[in-house]
Design a protein that fits this description.
269 residues; alpha/beta; TIM Barrel; six-stranded parallel β-sheet; three-stranded parallel β-sheet; 9 strands; 12% strand; globular; protein-tyrosine-phosphatase; Caps_polysacc_synth_CpsB/CapC; manganese ion binding
């Protein structure tokens, strides 16, 4: 599986505090079935002043430590990008990283306040040639009163990423409710861990993949955990699933994962 949202780089934000934690997170991710992971520390003006050079350097350093520890996890440069007026320019100049240098980037709106003209800002980003991936909308406190904003952002061209722990209920009833609503409406493009540690917000996608497979079918679970993340890292064009006119209904297809959900449940993986 491919995890496009993690805070595994040591000491860059509120995620891993040190190398020992990063290595433990990597071990847990690999044990759960993750083979590729985007390293996406926060880029938040005035709080986390990360940029492409220091993130890329941190990824290279962690790659070396993973090699020394014989942990088979492939890393990619990325960022969890917060709203800022100069964001289109910084993306264009490359000072804020996209996912593996692609057109796609993780876009995190404020959690508790809906910014004015958010849709206009997203349209500017899309018009500049970038594709925002809206991170964990199910966890935004303003989604209750402004669900229509999420719908319009999706229709505009923003991809939708759910947090794995939201899908399994670990983030509470509200996040679970909106995760299921977005899944049932066919709006979810990607599932990712948003891991911050080895105990709190652990890495791993398998439980969420099983839940999605049971709800939407294994083909769609495969798309969210493997096919679309791979397309993003390869910078292939994607149309948000919410913009597509037709979508397969749920079902227990075993074509993609080959019965992976049953293996996860049995503890074989």
């Amino acid at each position: 599986m491919i995890d496009l949202h993690s805070h595994i780089l040591p000491g860059l934000d509120d995620g891993s505090p040190d190398l020992a934690m990063s290595l433990e997170m990597a071990r847990l991710a690999v044990a759960d079935g993750t083979t590729h992971m985007a390293c996406t520390p926060h880029v938040m003006p005035g709080v986390y002043e990360n940029a492409t050079p220091n993130i890329a350097e941190a990824v290279q350093a962690l790659e070396l430590e993973l090699y020394r520890a014989a942990i088979p996890l492939t890393l990619y440069v990325g960022a969890d990008v917060h709203l800022a007026p100069d964001l289109p320019d910084r993306l264009r100049l490359g000072t804020v990283p996209t996912l593996n240098g692609s057109r796609y980037f993780l876009f995190e709106p404020p959690h508790h306040i809906l910014p004015p003209r958010l849709e206009d800002f997203a349209a500017r980003l899309i018009g500049a040639g970038f594709v925002p991936i809206l991170t964990h909308p199910e966890r935004l406190t303003w989604i209750k009163a402004n669900y229509d904003v999420i719908e319009r952002l999706n229709t505009l061209g923003c991809l939708i990423q759910l947090t794995a722990d939201s899908v399994t209920g670990a983030f509470g009833r509200t996040a679970l409710y909106y995760s299921e609503k977005l899944l049932d409406e066919g709006r979810v493009d990607i599932v990712a861990s948003d891991t911050h540690g080895a105990s709190r917000r652990r890495p791993g996608l398998s439980q969420a993949v099983v839940a999605i497979a049971n709800r939407c079918g294994e083909d769609e679970a495969y798309n969210m955990a493997v096919k679309r993340p791979d397309a993003i890292l390869q910078d292939r064009p994607l149309v948000p699933i919410g913009k597509q006119s037709a979508r397969k209904s749920g079902g227990s297809s075993a074509g993609r994962f080959g019965g992976l959900g049953r293996l996860f449940k049995s503890g074989a993986l």
